[in-house]
Amino acid sequence: MTDRFSGDAHLLEEKISGSLVYEGDFLQVQKDNVSLPNGHVATREFIRHPGAVVIIPIFDDNKILLERQFRYPLNRVFIEFPAGKIDAGEDPLICAQRELREETGYTATDWRHLCTIHNAIAYSDERLEIYVARGLTAGPASLDEEEFLETFTATATEMSDWVRAGKITDVKTVIGSFWLEKILSDQW
């Protein structure tokens, strides 16, 4: 039986040339020319992103800590798990602990890395490191000057209902809610 994940050479693209076409404070846009497996040349444009963490904070009673935050590109308030950008050279777990404390005021005694996801593979190199946080203790939040959000709690069932009804559409939170079902039922 052939391993489905070996022998990828026939699928690979090779960078010929490239340039940074935009550099902002947070994101960069890269434009590269690549050689395709058939020898033709194509252009690839993508967003360079420093990576981020997502935290699934679970209270002792299995309620979940969530946030409501306005997201400018889509001009609406979203229900989300706490999350944030990984700073250059920062360990993802340290980032997750910092983001939970800054955004919600909570600290946690038990941290578990679940997985890494790539949420926009067609146009970004962003990766999200997903963590579960338990043993939560409340404290003061310390939001960035330009950050406005509110926190609230919900049950896993409420979250599933909100995903099904389209009230939660943020990909990291949708994926996290599916993880949550497995975690709370001891399937993972």
Would you write up a description of this structure?
It is globular, with a radius of gyration of 19 Å. The chain is built from three helices and ten strands; from the N terminus they run E-E-E-E-E-E-E-H-E-E-E-H-H. Helix 2 packs across helix 3. The strands form three sheets. It has a four-stranded mixed β-sheet, sandwiched between helices. It folds into two domains: 9-48, no CATH class; 52-184, Nucleoside Triphosphate Pyrophosphohydrolase (Alpha-Beta Complex), CATH 3.90.79.10. It is an alpha+beta fold and 188 residues long. The chain has helices spanning 92-104, 156-164, 171-184; strands at 14-23, 28-35, 41-48, 52-57, 64-71, 76-80, 83-85, 107-117, 128-137, 149-154.
Q: In total, how many domains does the architecture comprise?
A: 2
Strand share of the residues? 35-45%
Please work out how many helical segments DSSP would assign: 3
Q: What Rg, in angstroms, do the CA atoms define?
A: 19 Å
How many runs of DSSP E, i.e. beta strands?
10
The amount of helix comes to 10-25%
Which structural class should the secondary elements be placed in?
A: alpha+beta
Mean of all residue-level pLDDT scores? 95
